[in-house]
Amino acid sequence: MSELVIEAGRTERQYWLDLWRYRELFYFLAWRDLLVRYKQTVVGISWSLIRPLLTMLILSVVFGKLGKMPSGGVPYPLLVFCGMLPWMFFSTSLSECGNSLVQNASLISKIYFPRLVIIVSSVITSFVDFMISAGFLAALMMWYHYRPPVAVVLLPFLVLLAFGVSLGVGLWIAALMVEYRDFRIIVPFLVQFGLYISPVGFQSSVVPARYQLLFSLNPMVGVIDGFRWCLLGTQGPAMWRSLTVALIDVVVLLVTGIWYFRKTERTFADVI
Question: In what residue span(s) does the ABC transmembrane type-2 domain sit (predicted)?
Answer without folding.
Answer: 43-264
